[in-house]
Amino acid sequence: MSRPQTKEALTLLIENNYDDLKGLIESSSLEEQESHFQFFKDDKLKETHYKRDENLKDVLVHLYEWQCLLLSFIKALREDKNTQVSFLPAGYTWKTYPKMNQAIKEKHQKTTLEEAKRYLDDTHEKVLNEIECLTEESLFEKGHFKAINNTTLLLYVTANTSSHYVFAYKKYKKHLKERKAHGIKE
């Protein structure tokens, strides 16, 4: 799918991808939602997230925390478009963010699946509200914000909403297929 060119198209993409994810989750049993991913220890899957996320809750808190980062980033940019704020929290870089992702998982070990769902619903709505307050220029023009001079805010928004929802959808769908392939019933 091509990148959205308007706020309306962006909002629609985000909502559609979120609805797809929520629909997949809601169409599965609570046992499926709470079960450990079957591919968690699969050595053939090299991506870090396959080793990190053990269950749906881990995926949802990952999305939630990244949306919290996005909301903080947007707030800082809206307060001063010339700010040099970093998207990532202090102590992390784009080379070390996998450590941050692991810290997110560890932070949420006592978070329940139901809490994770509520947290994500909350940040999802907050992000949509922030998008509504942004101008088309602030979302789509390169160089509109000093902190992201070489790219657009759209990139950060889509990476932490619609694209992240697709990532989560595919991962959870893979989990459900793996359960079925191994003969695990609800």
Q: Could you list some keywords that capture this structure?
A:
mainly alpha; 0% strand; 186 residues; globular; 63% helix; Four Helix Bundle (Hemerythrin (Met), subunit A)
Structure description:
It is built from nine helices and no strands. The protein is globular, with a radius of gyration of 17 Å. The chain is mainly alpha-helical. The mean pLDDT is 91. The longest helix is centred in the middle third of the chain and has 24 residues, at 56-79. The chain has helices spanning 7-26, 30-34, 48-52, 56-79, 97-107, 113-133, 136-140, 153-159, 162-181. The chain has one domain: Four Helix Bundle (Hemerythrin (Met), subunit A), CATH 1.20.120.
Radius of gyration: 17 Å
Sum up the overall morphology in one term: globular
Written as H for each helix and E for each strand, in order along the chain, the element string is HHHHHHHHH
User: Any guess at the CATH architecture?
Assistant: Up-down Bundle
CATH superfamily, by name, is: dinb family like domain
Give the termini separation: 34 Å
- The biggest beta sheet, please? none
InterPro entries: DinB/YfiT-like (IPR034660), DUF1706 (IPR012550)
Pfam families: DUF1706 (PF08020)
Protein name: DinB-like domain-containing protein
Organism: Acholeplasma brassicae
Concise overview:
The chain has 186 residues and is mainly α. It is built from 9 helices and no strands. It holds the Pfam family DUF1706.
